[in-house]
Automatic annotation (TrEMBL):
<dbReference type="InterPro" id="IPR031165">
    <property type="entry name" value="GNAT_YJDJ"/>
</dbReference>
<feature type="domain" description="N-acetyltransferase">
    <location>
        <begin position="9"/>
        <end position="98"/>
    </location>
</feature>
<dbReference type="InterPro" id="IPR016181">
    <property type="entry name" value="Acyl_CoA_acyltransferase"/>
</dbReference>
<protein>
    <submittedName>
        <fullName>N-acetyltransferase</fullName>
    </submittedName>
</protein>
<dbReference type="Pfam" id="PF14542">
    <property type="entry name" value="Acetyltransf_CG"/>
</dbReference>
Length: 99
């Protein structure tokens, strides 16, 4: 399965990563809240049934992590999916996840 196309939309205090796959109905998304310039909260991840098992959630989490790392930010993983993902990769995410 090819990687999803991920886009990011930004508002003053909120952010949203969206993932789509060519030829697959639906959109997966991960919402964030900006706590400060240095901290972002992962609020929630939604993956429609049409995308289950395709890696959309992991791709969204990876993009959030990459963007936060590039911006020198910390992520507070309130979202259960992002928290579980970060827990599985705890060693390599110590610089970006705020537990």
């Amino acid at each position: 399965m090819p990687d999803p196309m991920i886009t990011y939309s930004d508002a003053d205090t909120k952010g949203r990563y969206s993932a789509t796959f060519h030829g697959v109905d639906g959109e997966a998304y991960l919402t964030t809240s900006k706590l400060s310039a240095a901290t972002v909260i992962a609020d929630g991840t939604v993956v429609p049934d049409s995308m289950r098992g395709m890696g959309a959630g992991a791709a969204l989490a990876k993009r959030l992590i990459a963007d936060a790392r590039a911006a020198g930010q910390k992520i507070v993983p309130l979202c259960p999916f992002v928290r579980a993902y970060a827990g599985k990769h705890r060693e390599e995410l110590t610089d970006v996840i705020q537990w």
